[in-house]
Amino acid sequence: MNMIKIISGIPSGPSKVNIHSIRGEFVSSSVLSKTILNIKNMFIIAEEAEQSLPKDWIKFANKELLSKDINTDKRLYKNLKMYKDNQITFMELPDKLRQIVMLSGEYAVINPLNLFEWQKSLNYLDLINIMLSKEKLKTSTGYSYKHLIDRFFVEQWAKGKLLYPLILNNKRRFQRKMNYEAFLQEYNIPLVKVLYEYANIYDKIPIFRNAFYIILATNWKYVTDVKNEDILKLQEIIENSNLNKAQKGWYKRSLNFIVYALLEYGRTDLKTPYEYVNTLFPKEYSYYKKVDELVEKCPNYYPLRKDFIEYLEYMDKKERLAKNTQAGKRTHLKAFMDYIIQNKCDCMLTQKTFDDMFNFMREDNIVSYFEKKNKKFSSTLSDIAIFLKYIGYFSPYVNKMLPKNREKKGESPRTPFSVEMIKDLADILMNRPPHEPTKWSKEKADTSWWPHDVYPVLPMMVLLHLYIPVRGVQIRHLCRKRSFVLNNGGKIEKIVVNIDKNRNRKYLQEIPFVFSGLEIFNDFLKWHKEYYPKLPEYEYDKNSPFDRIEPLFIQPLGLKPIDKRVHFIYLKRVLAQYRIELAQKGKNNFYFIELTDEGKQILGKEFFESIEELNKTTNQFIEEHVKIMYDIHTFRVTGVTRYLEAGLPINIVMMLTGHTSPNIMLNVYNKLTSEEKKKLLRSAERKIMFDNPEKLKDNTEEFIQKEILPYYDKNNPDKLKKILSDNNLFTQKVKKSSTSVKKIDAIDEIVKISPLNWIPIAGGICPNVMCPDGREKKCSLCPYFITGMYFIDGVIFRANSAVLNFYQKVEEYRLSQEKTKIEDLELLMEEIYGWYEILNKIQKENNSKNENNLPVLDKEIIGKANIPSALAYLENYYNAKLLKTTPNIYGIKVLTIKAIKLALKQKIENVEEIISDETKVVDYIMSYYNDAKKSPKLLTDFLKSIGENIKAINNFNKIGYNSS
C-alpha cells in the first residue's frame, strides 16, 4: 500500500478536502479481476497498469488531441489541424498543445525523449493526488488536468486495469466531463450501454452520470454481473458511511436507478430497491429498537421482550395481516411502550399494573395519555388490548374500562358520473388522453394502436375502471400474468380480480370481458408485454390469492403498482380537460371541478383556458390546487348505479362489483318486460339497503344522497314528484294545521329545501320544513312527511308507539283524579289513524302481484292484536333499539316493575344492581322474553312469572313483527 504524495508544483495551503484519505493500492491483474466491489477507501490499480502507464498515456493523449477543437489561438488551431492531417509529428507540436495532454511542462506524465522513447515523470498516485486536489489546475488554454486524468482513469477501468473507490470524496462530488456516446463506441460495455439507453428513454441522464460513479467502483461489465448480494453490500456501505443524509440519498437513488434499469431490461432475479431496503433495514427495525429501549430503561418488563417480538410473527404468519395493517399495529405498540417508559417504568409486571393503566381515576391512565397525544386514539387502545390478550394480561376490568368508539360520521356523498359524462370521459381517454409527465419510448414496442405521445398505462387504467366497478386498489393491483385469461385466439376472455375484502369468498372474482369499448385493451396488453418483456414479481398483501404479481399498471422508473396519489392526480387531469372541452363548446356545467382560491391566485384566472396550458401544469399544482367532487371510489358507485339503471340483473352487477350478497329475485326479473326490469332493478340495491332496520338511518342518508340529490331541481316541483313516485315515496294529503280545512299538496314547500338538509327519522324522511301548527312531532299528520314501502319497519313501529301512547293516556285518565283533556285523546286517535292511512296506502301501492318484490316481510301492528300491555311495551322497546329511536317512557316504568317481580321470583341476588339502571332492567326481562317467544306455552308461563293474569296466548302470531 502506498500513500499519496504531494508532487512539486501544486500550490500548498489549507484544503477543505482531506485528499490523504484516498489511497492507492497496487495489486496483480488476477486479484483485480476477482475484486467485484472496491469497498476500500482507495483506488485499486493493477501492477501492470503502473508498468504500462507511459504507453497507455501516450495513446490516450494522442486520442485526446485528435478529438479536441481549439478556437482561442489561431496558431495552435493551425498546428493541431496539421497534426490531425498527419502533416507534422508529435515532437513538432508546440509546447502549449502538448501541455494540454500532460506531455510537457511541470505536470507532464511522461517526457518524450524521441518518437519511440519516453521517460516517466508521474505515477498513478501522483495522478490521483492531482485529480483530487482542491486547486483548479488548468493549462494556459483553459483545459483541466483533473478532468483529463479522470477520463484516463475511466478508460483504464474499461480495460480492467483500475477500480475507483465507491465513495470518491466525502465532502463534494467530482463533476465528471466526458462524452459517454464516444466512450461507448470505443468500449462496448453492455452494462453501461443498457443504463445509458434507459436514461435516454426516460430523460434521466443526470442520474445516469451519478450511477456511473458507482459502476466505476465495481467489476461489473455485463448485465449478468450484477448480483443481489453485491447490491445489498453497497446499500450497507452507503448507509454506514459518514456521508450526510443528502449524500446518502444521492448514492441510494443512483443505486436504485441501476437496479430499475436492469429490472426493465429483464433481470427478474434481482430484488427491487424496496425489497433491498426491507432486507437491510426492515420495517420492524425501529420497533425492535423500541423494545430494546423499553427493557433497558424498565428492567421489570424484560419478560415481555420475547412477547413483543414474537407478536410480529403472530400477526404475519397466524393472522396473515396485510403489510399496512401490521405497520399500523407496530406504531401503536411503540406508542404503548413510550407510555410505559414515561409513566409505568418502576411498576412491577403484574395484572394490577395493567389494570391501573385503564383506571380513569388515576392521573397517569393510558386513556388520558393518548387523549393528549392524539384525538383519534381508539384504534391505538384497541390494538393494545389485542396485544394484552395475546400475552394474557387482558382482564375483565381492562375490558370494562376500554372506551367505546364514538359513532363515526358518514362519508361525504359520492355522486355517480352521469351517462353522458361516462361517454365523454371514455372518448377523451381513447382519442385525446391528458398529458402525463411519465417519460417513455414509443419505439421500444409496437404503438400502432396508440397514436398519442402520452404513456398509455394511466389512460388505460382509468378507462378500464369506467367499465368495471371494482375498488380502486383492485384496479391498481391487477396482475398482468394471471388477471387476464386469454382465449384460443389470444384475446382477453375474462378478468380475474386479485384482492378482495371478503376473505371468506370460496372463488376468485371473475368478470367476463364482453365490453366493446375495451377492445383496445387487447392491444394494450400485447404492447405491455413487448415493452416490459420481463417484470419482477411484486408482493404487497399477505391475503392476496396470487401472492406475488406482475403488476400491470406501473411507472417505468418504479415497476411497482401505481399508487393512489398518482391515480387520483390523473383523474383530476382527465376531469380538468373535460371542463376545458365543455367550456370550448359553450357549456358551463362545471360543478364537478374547480381551483382552490390559492390556485386561482397563482394562475391569475378561474381555471385553465386551454389543454396546452393544462398539459404544462405540474402534478404538484394539480394535486394541491385542483378540487373535484369525485374520488376514485366514484367509479364503483357509478358502475353499480348505471348498470342497475340499464336493467342488468342484480346478480350480474354483484359479480362485477364483487359483492357476496345472495342473488336477488333473479327468476322474478326474468319474467318481467324490459321496462319493468329497469324500474325494479333501479330499486334493487335500495331494497337490500332498507331491509336492515339497524342501518335504517345510515341507509336513508345514503339513499337521499345517491337517489334524490343528483336529480333534484329546486325550480321544478314536478321533477321532485317524479323522483318520489319512481321510488314509491309519497306525502300524505292532510291538513296543513289543526285548524285548517283544506288538505294540501306540500311539494311546493318541500322543494325549497335542498335534500342535503333532509333528516332521516323512523318511518320516513323529514324534509326539514317547520312542523305545522298543532302537528309538532305528529309525523303521520304532517303534509311534509315523506314515507313509503322502504320505511315500513319504522311506520309500523311508530303506529304501535302511538297506540301505546293512547293506552298510557287512558290509564293516566283512569288513575288520576284530574280529567285528561279530551283533545289530547282525540289528537292521539287522529295520529293513529294517520299511521293506518299510510300503511293502507303502502299496501295498496304494493299489490299482490309484486308481493315478492317488497324489501321487507309482511308485518302486523300491535294495535291489531289483543295482547297484554307488557308484551306491547317489550316489543316497543326492542324495536326502538333496532331503529335507534326513543322507546315509550311509560312502558319502561311498567317493565321495571315487571322485572322486579321476575327477579324476586327467580331469586336473583344482585336485584339491586339490576333495578338501579332502567336499561339493565329492560335488558334483563327482554332476555327471558326472547326465549319465551318460541312457543305459546313458554310465553304463557313467562307472562304469569311477571304477574300478568292470562290463561293462554291465542293470537301468538300477531304479538309483533319480531316474532318467529
Q: Could you characterize the architecture of this molecule?
A:
Helices cover 50% and strands 5% of the residues. The protein is built from 43 helices and 16 strands. A three-stranded mixed β-sheet has the order 1-2-5. It folds into five domains: 19-277, no CATH class; 285-401, no CATH class; 419-628, no CATH class; 693-859, no CATH class; 865-964, no CATH class. Mean pLDDT is 78; it is low at 1-20, 409-413, 660-689, 848-865 and 954-964. The N and C termini lie far apart (93 Å). The longest helix is centred in the last third of the chain and has 24 residues, at 792-815.
Indicate the topology.
Blueprint lengths: L22 E5 L1 H6 L7 E5 H5 L1 H15 L6 H11 L10 H6 L9 E3 L5 E3 L3 H8 L13 H14 L3 E2 L16 H7 L3 H12 L3 H11 L12 H13 L4 H21 L7 H8 L4 H13 L7 H14 L4 H21 L7 H7 L8 H8 L4 H14 L4 H6 L17 H13 L25 H11 L4 H5 L7 E3 L5 E5 L13 E3 L7 H12 L6 E2 L8 E2 L14 H21 L8 E3 L1 H7 L7 H5 L3 H7 E3 L5 H12 L4 H8 L8 H6 L2 H9 L1 H6 L6 H13 L8 H10 L2 E3 L15 H4 L8 E3 L2 E3 L19 E3 L3 H24 L6 H24 L23 H15 L5 H17 L5 H5 L2 H15 L3 H10 L19
Parallel strand pairs: 1-2
Antiparallel strand pairs: 2-5, 3-4, 6-7, 7-8, 9-10, 11-12, 13-16, 14-15
Helix pairs in contact: 6-7, 9-10, 9-12, 10-12, 11-12, 11-13, 14-16, 16-19, 21-22, 21-25, 29-30, 37-38, 37-39, 39-40, 40-42, 42-43
